[in-house]
Amino acid sequence: MLKRLSAIFLLAAVVAGCSNDGWQTASRESAGIAPAPADTPEAVVQVYAADAWGWRGIFAVHTWIAIKPSNADSYTVHEVVGWRERRGLPVLRSVQDQPDRYWFGARPEVIYDLRGAKADELIPKIQSAVENYPWKDEYRVFPGPNSNTFPAWVGLQVPEMELDMPFRAIGSGWAD
Questions:
Q1: For the stretch 25-48, what's the b/e string if a residue is b when 16 or more beta carbons lie within 10 angstroms of its beta carbon?
Q2: Which of 83, 111, 154, 174 lies 20 to 30 A from 137 at CA?
Q3: Strand locations in the chain (E)
Q4: H/E element, 2
Q5: Which residue, 164, 160, 176, 135, is CA-closest to 63?
Q6: What is the domain partition of the chain in residue ranges?
Q7: Model confidence pLDDT, tens digit, residues 25-69
Q8: What confidence tens digit (pLDDT) does each residue in 148-160 have?
Q9: Up-side HSE of residue 92: CA atoms within 13 Å toward CB?
Q10: What is the DSSP string of 87-135?
Q11: Can you give the pTM of this predicted structure?
């Protein structure tokens, strides 16, 4: 029985790894789940999670933070991206972007959503935590620090967020 299960798992892993689609062609489109800034004058703080790229998505998610102050015309997305380290760049990136992009083919889901006056109150605290993130130039898939360590650490610095990271956010415990 164990041999049969092992063979099935191995076959599934091989088939999944034989896809013609690479990360270069995987969708990075908006999932259409974030409120449009033009239609949403209130402040918005959201944390997203999407399956990690490739076989890692079986076990883990990638998470990121998006903020939009009141009356802002765009979101700022804060995330840690491991491949940036190999290019000599900081792994932490903060950019004006669509907050709900597919993570290289994986549809994101909102795991935290705060709007209105409370979001406006927390945005400066979140921004300060982002600026003080201690592992801006470090990345390690396991045990961390990684992309999940970052939102977890921000949540610890801003306890009013009451951020609850998903079980599959491997590396979020590194922040403790």
A1: eeeeeebeebbeeeeeeebbbbbb
A2: 111
A3: 44-51, 61-68, 76-80, 92-96, 109-115
A4: helix 2-17
A5: 164
A6: 27-166
A7: 555 567 789 999 999 999 999 999 998 877 777 889 999 999 999
A8: 999 999 999 999 9
A9: 19
A10: TTS-SEEEEE--TTB-BTTBPPEEEEEEESHHHHHHHHHHHHHHHT-TT
A11: 0.84
CB 173: neighbour CB atoms within 10 A?
13
34 touches 109 (CB < 8 A): no
For residue 132 the two structure tokens come to 């003080």
124 token code pair? 């400066």
3-state secondary structure of 79: strand
Task: Pick the closest to residue 154 from 43, 45, 34 (CA basis).
Answer: 45
Both structure tokens of 29: 């489109």
Q: Residue 19 carries which side chain, given as an amino acid letter?
A: S
Lookup result for tokens 């041999």: 3
3-state secondary structure of 34: coil
